[in-house]
Amino acid sequence: MGYEYEPGKFHLKKGSLYRIDSDGSAHRVVRDVDISNGLCWDESERAFYYADSFEYAIRRYDYDVDTGAISNPRIVFRYKDHGLDGIVDGMTIDTDGNLWVANFDGSQVLKIDPRAGSLLQRVAVPALQTTSCTFGGPALDQLYVTSAAMHRGAEQRAPAGATFRVSGLAARGRPDRPVNLQLTQ
């Protein structure tokens, strides 16, 4: 992303999204980004999900599992189509292929079906600036949600800045995939 010259204000279209290959080489795959966020992969769908936060939308790319290449970007979910405020922040994916998206400045996490472009569920969070989420716990059925406490015109009081655990969602995350980087100097 671009330089933040005031809290919450950035030089726009200065960021990029990069792919790092196993040999450590970096490749720019998306240019003119405001804020890169919400990276998720669905190997079974051969899909990569990504958000440039100030687009207020989630993109899907075709994903080549063997090379890591992405192609054919398309919008699968727009905040305005669902009357949502705030911006797209970090996200994760469940075993059913649904996205769980932190809604920064929205005090919630959104469960989204990216195939249908539908909003399935809203999970309230007692912090305005919800930043990211991931599944954890022994059964990967607990959603851990992070938040910020940035002073952007209004002080964010506790529990802002905390990490929250949400249970009882009837969803499970996927196990992490190991990454093997062969970095050379």
Automatic annotation (TrEMBL):
GO molecular function, one term: calcium ion binding
Residues annotated as catalytic: D89 (proton donor/acceptor)
Family: Belongs to the SMP-30/CGR1 family.
Cofactor note: Binds 1 divalent metal cation per subunit.
Any one annotated GO CC term: cytoplasm
Enzyme class: hydrolase
Source organism phylogeny: Eukaryota, Metazoa, Ecdysozoa, Arthropoda, Hexapoda
Biological process annotations from GO: L-ascorbic acid biosynthetic process
Subcellular compartments: Cytoplasm
Residues noted as binding substrate in the record, renumbered to the chain: E4
Pfam families named among the record's database cross-references: SGL
Binding of a divalent metal cation, residues: N37, D89
Main location: cytoplasm
Chemical reaction(s) catalysed: D-glucono-1,5-lactone + H2O = D-gluconate + H(+)
Protein name per Swiss-Prot or TrEMBL: Regucalcin
Record keywords: Calcium, Cytoplasm, Hydrolase, Metal-binding, Zinc
Keyword Hydrolase: yes
